[in-house]
Amino acid sequence: MNWHAVLAIYAYEMARTRRTLLQSIVAPVISTALYFVVFGAAIGHRINEIGNVPYGAFIVPGLTMLSVLTHSVSNAAFGIYFPRFTRSIYEILSAPISHFEVTLAFVGASATKSLLLAAIILLTARAFVPYEIAHPVWMLIFLGLTAFSFSLLGFIIGIWADNFEKLQFVPMLIITPLTFLGGTFYSIDMLPAFWQKVTLFNPVLYLISGFRWSFFDLADVNIWLSLGMTLLFLTICLVLVSWIFRTGYRLRP
């Protein structure tokens, strides 16, 4: 393992976060805090509890997962797209560093940023709504797997995209709607029977359900099914990344 090269790319990506601190950390934290103000402190007490959990606390895992999903994808996509845009990617590919090490560096940096963002959001949420974490180890497992899996997805999008518009297409028009419809603000038990069945085809539902279970022992689907779907998504992303490097898709001139 060429750790010097991995750490060099990782440090460069983390330094980019420091240079864009307002966009990378401050803006998403403020946006999420506004959700807590509106749904938690302002109107949350007027909404019935869900599974004996106050509504303000109920939305904490969903909103945290919303930020982790969108920023994991965006950070990793831009991280690999920018060297392709400036054509400096060929310097990385010709350097004595394996494809696995390149992926590990970019995806690891993106996942780290998302985990830092999640920690700040969870601390911020405590200022607006009280909540407890019933299974902290499972919470970290779901958070880590989700951040890494969606950073891999962002890495794939960054290689697929050939302009900045496509770079934002998947996060804005696919990831965010799926997250909103995956139980961020509600339990699927509150939906009509038909829409409950439709929602089961939304992969984000399993991530939010498992993450919420780690907080309140409350889930829309079985915890092991949530874990299985998360690992399946991770495996699919790993296979796609392996195929990209093996075939040189969008990497070779």
Description:
This protein is mainly α. It is built from 10 helices and no strands. The protein has helices at residues 3-19, 21-42, 55-85, 89-94, 99-125, 136-160, 164-180, 193-199, 203-216, 223-247. Helix 9 crosses helix 10 (223-247). The protein is globular and about 60 Å long.
C-alpha end-to-end distance? 27 Å
Strand content: under 5%
Number of strands: 0
Helix % is over 70%
CA gyration radius, whole angstroms:
19 Å
What does the largest sheet look like? none
Taking pLDDT < 50 over at least 5 consecutive residues as the criterion, the unreliable ranges are none
Shape: globular
SSE-based structural type = mainly alpha
Listing every helix as H and every strand as E from the N terminus to the C terminus, the arrangement reads: HHHHHHHHHH
Q: Report the mean per-residue pLDDT as an integer.
A: 84
Helix-strand layout with pairing:
Blueprint: H1 3-19, H2 21-42, H3 55-85, H4 89-94, H5 99-125, H6 136-160, H7 164-180, H8 193-199, H9 203-216, H10 223-247
Spell out the key features of this protein.
253 residues, mainly alpha
Brief write-up:
The chain has helices spanning 3-19, 21-42, 55-85, 89-94, 99-125, 136-160, 164-180, 193-199, 203-216, 223-247. By secondary structure, it is mainly alpha-helical.
